[in-house]
């Protein structure tokens, strides 16, 4: 049986796979990409009789490919927390799907493995901006504040690495970053040893210094809208910047529009952390997707921007 591991390139996807492969090491083909590259099942559409493990990408967005792969005799283990729609029924489909706002894929894997590699789930939960869930898990492991802080930074840096239009925007391909942590079962050892983290820390600081100079283009009772120009650093920092502004004002929703070369916008939406709902509903109206607390649109045409701003207002005002 050949194994194919298909995972989102962010901290949650990487740490989910890492936990599973620490438990059950396999020589597997890896399929991943930048965070926004979520239609990953298409890349393996012709495979038959394989064991697919799919992590942290929406089964709704991938439904057609998923159904085809199931019909071709593949067994599919599916762990995810993004909008799922109707979940396929098939004896060779093994879903672990929970779209509650306080879980991430690595937390679902942590449950599946009864907490065996929980430190990596803490890293992932911080990466997905689920600070309260991360702190609860850290508390269950009796971590010191300093240890928790190190896992937080690691999650944030691995997550930061995943944002870009193409792999060329990133410091490391998600596959290379996963391979760098594969030898480490203990994230604290990785934290001390990994040159990758030093590189990401430096890049992150530079990008954030630039981002923090940019003021919102619009502030309404619902929240704040930011717009970044078409530059690699803007695409890289957009996710972590969005998470940071969401934490700074937990009662407000936030949207960040990053200009693309083709003139349209890459949009990230964060629901208010105090009411982490509705982001995926808003983005699905514009062909985007995601989860209740955080979602995105890959291609918002310039003439659609006003309609998006109205929908944002409707979703989050009052
Ligand atoms: Mn996730």
Structure in words:
The chain has 318 residues and is of the alpha/beta class. The protein folds into two domains: 3-201, inorganic pyrophosphatase (n-terminal core), CATH 3.90.1640; 218-316, Diaminopimelate Epimerase, Chain A, domain 1. The chain has helices at residues 11-23, 63-71, 105-112, 118-127, 131-140, 145-161, 174-181, 187-193, 195-211, 232-248, 279-284, 305-316; strands at 3-7, 28-31, 51-55, 75-80, 93-97, 218-219, 223-228, 253-259, 265-270, 289-290, 294-300. The strands form two sheets. The chain has a six-stranded mixed β-sheet, sandwiched between helices. Helix 1 (11-23) runs parallel beside helix 3, helix 3 (105-112) runs antiparallel to helix 4 and helix 6 packs antiparallel against helix 10. The protein is globular and about 55 Å long. It starts with a strand and ends with a helix. The mean pLDDT is 96. The structure holds manganese (II) ion.
Give the DSSP E fraction (strand runs of 2 or more residues).
15-25%
Q: Name the helicity range.
A: 40-55%
CATH architecture designation of the largest domain: Alpha-Beta Complex
Main β-sheet description: 6 strands, mixed
Rg, Cα atoms, Å: 19 Å
Number of helices: 12
């Amino acid at each position: 049986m050949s194994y194919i591991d298909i995972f989102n390139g962010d901290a949650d996807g990487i740490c989910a796979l890492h936990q599973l492969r620490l438990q059950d090491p396999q020589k597997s083909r890896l399929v991943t990409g930048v965070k926004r590259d979520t239609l990953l099942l298409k890349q393996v559409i012709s495979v038959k009789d394989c064991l697919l493990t799919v992590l942290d990408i929406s089964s709704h967005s991938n439904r057609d490919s998923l159904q085809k792969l199931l019909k071709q005799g593949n067994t599919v283990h599916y762990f995810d927390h993004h909008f799922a729609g109707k979940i396929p029924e098939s004896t060779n489909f093994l879903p672990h799907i929970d779209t509650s706002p306080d879980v991430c894929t690595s937390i679902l894997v942590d449950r599946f493995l009864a907490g065996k590699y929980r430190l990596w789930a803490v890293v992932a939960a911080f990466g997905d901006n689920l600070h309260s869930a991360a702190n609860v898990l850290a508390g269950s492991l009796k971590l010191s504040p300093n240890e928790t802080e190190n896992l937080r930074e690691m999650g944030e840096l691995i997550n930061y690495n995943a944002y870009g239009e193409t792999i060329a925007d990133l410091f490391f391909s998600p596959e290379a970053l996963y391979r760098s942590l594969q030898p480490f079962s203990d994230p604290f050892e990785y934290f001390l040893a990994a040159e990758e983290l030093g590189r990401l820390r430096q890049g992150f600081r530079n990008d954030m210094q630039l981002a923090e100079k940019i003021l919102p283009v619009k502030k309404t009772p619902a929240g704040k809208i930011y717009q970044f120009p078409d530059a690699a650093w803007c695409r890289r920092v957009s996710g972590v910047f969005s998470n940071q502004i969401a934490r700074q004002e937990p009662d407000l929703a936030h949207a960040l529009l990053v200009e693309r070369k083709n003139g349209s916008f890459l949009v990230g939406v964060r629901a208010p952390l105090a009411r982490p709902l509705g982001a995926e509903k808003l983005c699905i109206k514009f062909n985007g997707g995601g989860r209740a607390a955080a979602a995105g649109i890959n291609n918002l045409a310039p003439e659609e921007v006003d309609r998006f701003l109205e929908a944002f207002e409707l979703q989050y005002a009052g």
